[in-house]
Give the backbone structure.
Amino acid sequence: MDPYTIFADIVAGRAAASKVYEDADVLAFMDIRPVTSGHVLVIPKSPVRSLSELDPELGGKLFRVGQQVAAALRASEVNCDGVNFFLADGVTAGQEVFHVHLHVIPRTPGDGFGLRARPRTPPRADLDYLAASIRGALRRAVPE
Ligand code: 5GP
């Protein structure tokens, strides 16, 4: 699969971006089509396509920078009463750019942003069954 995305050009300085933070590993910049005003993307500089490819240390750093950006949004001139983090992993989850990115979305009352979902409360037995299945998969992925 073609590893190229526009984010690689942004990291390399070949494409324009309105940057808010940069260090050796991480870049944060304004989303070109913000869902609310002040919407920021935090990305690893390396071209990591999916969560499964993301080094956990780097993932931790993305979250840390996301936290700092969230605090900065609240302290800046951006209208920001709350913040949502959002990360789409895979086409079905809504991922369009295949370079991992954490959305940091400032929220204000009535801004129209939200997740569409129809949550139900399943029987406890169903929750327990799925929890056991996930625990098993975690043990296989992260052996003690
Ligand atoms: P996804 O749907 O993959 O989670 O989100 C991709 C995000 O990247 C979208 O919010 C979209 O607006 C943003 N985006 C796509 N192309 C560019 C670009 O060239 N520059 C910037 N700054 N953001 C982009």
Q: What stands out?
A: Residues 56-75 form the longest helix (20 residues). The mean pLDDT is 96. The two ends are 34 Å apart (CA to CA).
